[in-house]
Amino acid sequence: MRGLKIESTWKLVMVLGLALVALSEVRAVHGAQLSPTQCKEERRLAVNMCKPIVFGQPPPPGCCERVRLSHYQCVCPIFTPRVANLITVNKAIKLFQSCGRRVPHNFKCGSLYFP
Fold this sequence. Notes:
Layout: H1 2-21, H2 36-49, H3 61-69, H4 72-75, H5 81-84, H6 89-98, E1 107-109, E2 112-114
Helix pairs in contact: 1-2, 2-3
Domain Bifunctional inhibitor/plant lipid transfer protein/seed storage helical: 20-109
Signal peptide: 1-28
Keywords: Signal
């Protein structure tokens, strides 16, 4: 039973990491505010498109597309201190790079900090 709990926790961490994928294109929303519903949809799409990563596979093209289209304002708020402790920043950066994106130096997203 304990192994199942650890596996579930790891999968949760990976899914949350997938949400982080949406951050790779750090850009401002020019003159438009996204509604909470729109942000929720962006998070849902990113998680669904990037599920193969949970199983150790490389990000599929649809996942990388979400990386380029999602707004960081929608994703950053989910990275509380507790969630940030579960995510390895270096792994997230490698994931971004595999999608052809870079994370700016000194970028802060929720409780995550990218030096």
